[in-house]
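Q: Protein A?
A:
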Amino acid sequence: HMKKSDNDQFLFETTVSASIKDTIDEIATIHNLRHRVERLKMEGEELAKYGPAKPLDKQGLDEFSETPVEKGPYYSADPTGRRTGNACSPDVAKVLLKTLDEAVAVIHKDQVAKAVTLTRKKILDAIDLIRGAVMICYPQGLPEWDFVRQAIEDNEDLAGTSFANDDIPPENAALWFAGKSMLPEKKLSDFVGRHERTKAVVKLQKKGQGPPAREPVVDQDTQKAMMAWYYKKQEEQKKLAEDEDDSYASSAWASSSSLKAHFSGVNNVRLPK
């Protein structure tokens, strides 16, 4: 179980006889491919709505363009000015959007709860399906500067973007288990034992970053449920405290000697002042 964060996790199956180096290479590759699919999902949706990307030197809002804007039959102006606005047919775009959703489902964190392992091949097959859906939408192909084409061809330049820290090159990756760095020259069995059915939670880090943060004792959802329960109990205690009115104790009917006084005929006797 590779868990970098609550949203960044997947299940990976291997053998305890595998080397740590090979395991790191495979886990880092899968980690990077997952983020690649997430970027494809984001940019692919923009492609379906607003068409291919403009060259970097021509990006800008069409309404302020100094040259005439070519508008196709399904033109929709890109509010960010990054794309031409010449989208494909809405019917065909649905195919691309459906393919993107299916690819994200393959790499989604929910697969962990379903006990579904993730492999490099599964992700590459999903990317190939996206490639086919893009070709159906745009048979003429996408320009080389389009972000979707670059992600499909694994030719992205993420430097200076918000995604720059997403990927971890396998040669610069380190694997941690139980607070210890797993040395590349050793085998998995040196850390997790020789039982093939062992499940281990490992963390992927860049070399030199030091040990990752330890897992909390309870997860975030459980913590929220516990806080809600304690708050409910606290409110119940407040209501009980408000209901503890003992003024009735001074009433005549509450007196322990009222019955005796009644039969003695002195119940309502008043002494003279």
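Q: Protein B?
A:
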Amino acid sequence: AATTARRATKADLASLPEYKPLKTILGHDEDVDAAEWSTLDVANWLESIGLGCFAKRFAEHKITGDLLHVLTEDHLKELGVSLIGDRALLMHQIARLWRGAVHRRRFRTIWEADGLVYHGGCFDWCFKQMVCHPCCNDPDHYRLTGAALYVTERDLKRHKGACCQTSKHTRAIDLSVIAGVSDFHRNAVCDCCCSADVVVVDLDKEKGLEPVDPLLVTKGDGHVVAQKLRAAIEEAQTLAPGMQHMLRM
């Protein structure tokens, strides 16, 4: 026989437990480096979000901070998190931690330097001194983050007498459009230790982007800078799929 659902009375509603949304979690997420957490740190975090009852199970299964973002709903069930609300809360808070970690990695400065003004040896130095080049032009500036390579270059606007007035233009090159990085040393007659190492950044030709002028760095630094660029590109590619997954949560 069919049963008719009974409407809840005020007494029924009053007897229900009340759970309020979590408002804070260990301060600002972007300031928390969960990847460095031990099992004890994870236990403290669980307590801070009201799920300290699962701390022992997480510790028994050796769940450290760097493993939190790979946990799935099935893993949480095996860890004894049986209520859907608790699992949803955990997945939500883990996603927040991961987004904060990715944000820090994307915007931290990995390398920063000025481009060389004198990069062609002694003759280049003498010529630029005669034409007052260092008086009129600041050096180019390079900054590498986990998301982009920023190149600040001179933009000649107009001449005024023997010198010139220049403005600066900063170009942000997303690491995802860089197809390759190479480096070499630019030999010069009468080197005098002031010739440059050249770092060449090749962009994805299918994107139709304007080429990047070679980076002119201190002699001996070219290979190191190229390695840092390649490592940053590889890390950005590794983080991208996980970030897309977390953004959907």
